[in-house]
Amino acid sequence: MQLICCGLRICELCSESKLKLQRQCPFCTAPGIPEVKYDRGFRRELESLSLKCPKCNDQWFGLFTDLPRHLNNHYDLECENCGEKFIFSQQVEKHLNENCKKRLVECPLVFLHCSNEVIYEQMNQHCLSDQHQNCLIQFIKTLIPQTSQKHSNLALETLLDEQYRRMLTNYIEKIDSIVQEIDPILGKCSRLSSEGQQFEAGIQEVRAQCVKFKESFDKNEKLAENINQILANMNKLLHEIKSMSMVDLKLISSDNTYKFKVNILSIIDNEQAVQSEPVHTSQSGYKLALSCSIYLDQQNHARYVSISFIILCGEFDTILSWPFVYPVTLAILDLTKAKRNIEYSIPWHSRTAPLHQPLRNQNTVIHIERFCSVDTLIKNRNSYLQDDFIFIQMHIDFMEPGANVTFDKDRPMITEDSIQRSIVTNIATK
After folding, report:
1. Among 307, 319, 227, 232, which Cα is nearest to 282's?
2. Domain MATH, which positions (predicted)?
3. Phi and psi (nearest 5°) for 368?
């Protein structure tokens, strides 16, 4: 900084702390409080000055402008009261004496044996304490008799200045009024103390509620973590399902049908059932199969093609809906343009065990013993046989689930006579 009166340069800190106490310039004796201005020229000289760090034992050397940034690494002196950190010991000393809110200061009533030292930021609270208030009251009570006695003595002295006597009388009256107001103030202090206790009880209750809220929050957070873990496991499972190779799976066609090619003459000669390969409704769908055999009616000396529908145990049964509610239609295909297929629709019922989730390798088969007469196929071999093979088609209607379809509970699952009659009628209409 630079003095305006004489142009001398002085320290900025000194100008703030000492010049305000002067009544004239200490250098040129100009009257009045010395005025200063910011010295820009000296500032430029300082910024171009090279110097050593006073904290590094001459280990750092640089420009003055870089010194503040370097000194940020030297905040290693800590205030023992509040923990604030400083660079130089002078800063710590000034902080402890003037600025620290946790420094110890004497109570103004220390001469009345009030607390010797009080934390600075708690001084207001201390002044409202019972100890401080009692000391103040005792001081006022001891002052009144002394003042009254002095007033009596002064009344006897005729040479006492009248103005001083009136002033003293005024002070005594004020003290008397203060003494009269002490009791209401003490009552208010008692009321404030009671309200403070109520507030403290309310605060304790709020703290207890906060603890309960935190416990509830921790439980909810743990539950959320468990849910997130479950979702992560589900996403991982879905990813594994999607990435799983399905090359070996046989799927139904896009029109929800599956065709099973059977050598009917071979079955007739060997009298053994032939089962299709497993077929899936989708890559993660139901696992099904068809079976074809010859049923011999000993009583009527007739042979019938018998077809079975089987639900197999699949890899994804646990994530599928059960029971199997979709209508299934089995048919022996007419290979001519007439398309007079021999069909049978499997009725659905929720209590039908073969339509529920398999508990072993496969469910009990839905067996249609008299699906079609062998003689009918042989007689119409041009319509149903191709090189001694018949084609059995399975169609699943996923658009019309059977959950809302009701059937007569007394209707048997397989009605042989009605099936036979429908087949004969179908053949007769050709």
Report:
1. 319
2. 255-396
3. -105, 95
Closest CA to 307 of 258, 371, 363, 261: 371
Q: What are 117-140's pLDDT values in tens digits?
A: 888 888 888 888 888 888 888 877
Structural element, H or E, at residue 344: strand 342-346
Number of domains in the chain: 2
Tokens of 68: 């503040």
Q: Is residue 421 part of a domain?
A: yes
Report helix, strand or coil for 303: strand
pLDDT in tens, 206-218: 999 999 998 999 9
CA distance 284 to 240: 11
pLDDT digits (tens, 9 = 90+) for 138-169: 877 777 665 555 555 555 455 456 666 777 78
334 falls within a domain: yes
* C-alpha count within 13 angstroms, C-beta hemisphere, residue 255: 6
Check residue 271 and give left, alpha or beta (phi > 0: left; psi -120 to 50: alpha).
left
Asked if residue 124 is part of any domain, the answer here is: no
Structure tokens belonging to residue 191: 């009321």
Helices (H), 323-406: 374-379, 381-384
Asked if residue 174 belongs to a domain, the reply is no
Identify the helix (H) or strand (E) that includes residue 152.
helix 130-156
Radius of gyration of the chain (CA): 54
Report d(CA 250, CA 414) in Å as an integer.
28
Give the CATH number for residue 369.
2.60.210.10
pTM above 0.90, yes or no: no
Structural domain range at position 389: 257-428
Give the single-character DSSP code of 221: H
Half-sphere exposure of 172 (CA within 13 A, CB side): 15
Among 23, 50, 76, the domain boundary falls at: 76
How many residues would you count in the chain?
430
Buried b (16+ CB within 10 A) or exposed e, 90-113: ebbeebbeeebeebeeebebeeee
Q: How far is CA 289 from the centre of its chain?
A: 48
Last residue of a domain, one of 76, 104, 137: 76
